[in-house]
């Protein structure tokens, strides 16, 4: 049985890299992968969830201007690390934040795990 596991683990690693890469490039398990289409509806849904959660926790009134960039990480679900351009209330000034949202869609679960101001 031990020999079978020894042969199976490298094969599983190669398959995981091939599937996770999707573009022919290897991706380390647990590593961050750029989101190819940051304008996808689901990315916008995750970004809006992050803002609503932040607003509830902090009494803020942030509005999403756009998603600047994003990455995903496969965990027990998916982590989304997004840089968001926002405006507060009726202000015309834009401020950027990095939000991390953990999602497990099969459980209808989302959690804002981090929300920090970033420069630029």
TrEMBL record:
Biological source species: Acacia crassicarpa
The organism's place on the tree of life at top rank: Eukaryota
Residue intervals of the Cystatin domain: 27-118
Signal peptide (residue range): 1-24
Molecular function GO labels: cysteine-type endopeptidase inhibitor activity
Identification of the protein by name: Cystatin domain-containing protein
Pfam families xref list: SQAPI
Keyword list, A-Z: Protease inhibitor, Signal, Thiol protease inhibitor
InterPro entries: Cystatin_dom, Cystatin_sf
